[in-house]
Design brief:
Elements: H1 15-43, H2 48-71, E1 84-86, H3 91-98, H4 103-121, H5 125-129, H6 134-157, H7 169-188, H8 192-195, H9 197-211, H10 218-222, H11 240-268, H12 274-293, E2 299-301, H13 304-312, H14 317-332, H15 334-341, H16 345-368, H17 374-392, H18 402-408, H19 411-425
Helix pairs in contact: 1-2, 1-3, 1-14, 2-12, 2-14, 3-4, 3-11, 4-11, 4-12, 6-11, 6-16, 6-17, 6-19, 7-9, 7-16, 9-16, 11-12, 11-13, 11-19, 13-16, 14-15, 17-19
């Protein structure tokens, strides 16, 4: 992590530079934002027009909620550079509802009612903040980075292990090339070259990929130039079992969002208070309610963008609010989003591996300040070990009841919950190491 930020939270870079810096946050987040609606649309075998509506609404609402999260609206918003987007935490519950008679209307209705859990929970954040001492915070931040590494590795290799071109020498060479450019610019670049290292590295990789014929423009050709949002396109239904499942997912998201916001505070050199957490989680809950009304899936904060801040030293909330504006445009002009999605995965992977590894480094630095004791060692070891077990081998939960898969399907959630519980139950004095 940078000890000296190039731009602090309240700084406003020049407009041209702001646009460039906002673009690199957009590049880091866009794939994740459209992934959830694409997965749900494909698995439920929705018509292409319906899947496009899910995707466009996700981009538009992501932009609106990101702007509110960064700029604030009364008590709503953390007022830090936080990109918001659709969350994979809700996918299992959404698909279970989607396959029932309720369909997509049930997913959105359950999301709307379930968001009340997060909205109410936000008012208890000052108390919840006390549950996150440095040993828990550092463990959660480190687990966030570790859980993202497999995503970056697959990008780096060019897809999924089942793909024919996975980890070909060409893919690995391209990703390594982008990685080297990003590292060189961060280490030796000055001014704009250091601050915009990620977007410059990816643009360079994209141009080379274009010359090599790697870029597929099929999505750009078929994308609509302009599309208006369609509120309540699927209607709303309220299945009881679906509402319960979504409510559990929202409880899990509160834990994940807390971890992300604490990591964000570390990256931006901001002390996170209960008020910060209350505003952030409230924005998260209200944003998810808006998403349901606008015909897309629930939201949470994006941890990958914390890596962008850690790597570049640009912590300006105005830059990320500008990213929100770009996301709104992407939602209204689908062809814009399609162009971004055309970036080959190895180009994303070269920058992504570095970004996510920086989150791990931030977690290590936080834990380095924690007292070295047997108790703290147990908290860190068990939490990260069990979190990684689920991250690396998700099949571990396949034979357990659906409830367990829904709650503990994320390594971040497992690591966070264990760190919280162990910090509460392990005695403070009896197993401290002797000095």
């Amino acid at each position: 992590m940078n000890n000296n930020l190039l731009y602090n939270v309240e700084d406003k870079p020049p407009l041209g530079l702001t646009l460039l810096l906002a673009a690199q946050h957009l590049l880091a987040a866009l794939g994740g934002i459209i992934a959830v609606p694409l997965v749900i649309g494909n698995v439920l075998k929705l018509p292409t027009t319906d899947t496009i509506i899910l995707v466009n609404a996700a981009l538009l609402v992501s932009g609106i909620v990101t702007i509110i999260q960064c700029r604030g609206l009364g008590p709503i918003g953390i007022r830090l550079p936080s990109v918001m987007g659709t969350s994979f935490t809700f996918v299992a519950a959404a698909l279970a509802i989607g396959f029932s008679e309720s369909g997509v209307a049930g997913i959105l209705g359950a999301s709307l009612i379930g968001s009340i859990v997060m909205i109410i929970g936000s008012f208890f954040m000052p108390y919840i903040r006390k549950l996150f001492p440095p040993v828990v915070t550092g463990t959660v931040v480190m687990m966030i980075g570790l859980s993202l590494i497999p995503v970056a590795v697959d990008w780096f290799a060019g897809g999924q292990p089942t793909d024919a071109n996975y980890a070909t020498p060409e893919n690995l060479t391209m990703a390594t090339f982008v990685l080297i450019i990003v590292v060189a610019l961060v280490q030796w670049g000055k001014g704009i070259f250091s601050a915009a290292a990620i977007v410059i590295g990816m643009m360079t990789g994209y141009i080379i990929a274009l010359l090599l014929g790697w870029v597929n423009f099929d999505g750009v050709k078929t994308a609509q130039v302009f599309a208006l949002p369609q509120p309540l396109h699927f209607g709303l239904a309220f299945p009881i079992s679906g509402i319960i499942g979504m409510s559990i997912a929202y409880l899990v998201t509160i834990v994940e969002s807390n971890g992300n916001f604490l990591a964000l505070g570390n990256a931006t050199q901001t002390e996170i208070t209960g008020k910060h957490l209350r505003g952030g989680v409230l924005c998260d809950g209200l944003g998810s309610a808006l998403a349901a009304i606008m015909s897309t899936t629930p939201f949470s904060s994006f941890s990958q963008n914390i890596g962008v801040i850690s790597l570049t030293g640009v912590a300006s909330r105005y830059v990320v609010a500008f990213t929100g504006g770009l996301l709104v445009l992407a939602g209204l002009f689908p062809v814009f989003g399609a162009l971004i999605v055309s970036i080959p995965l190895p180009v994303l992977g070269g920058a992504g591996l570095m970004m996510f590894a920086m989150i791990i480094a931030a977690g290590i630095q936080m834990l380095d300040k924690v007292e070295h004791s047997k108790r703290n060692g147990l908290i860190i070891a068990i939490s990260i070990g069990c979190g990684l077990a689920v991250t690396t081998r998700p099949e571990l939960l396949d034979k357990l009841p659906h409830f367990f898969k829904e709650v503990f399907g994320s390594g971040i959630t497992v690591g966070s919950i264990l760190a919280l519980i162990l910090n509460l139950v392990l005695p403070e004095e009896s197993i401290k190491s002797k000095k």
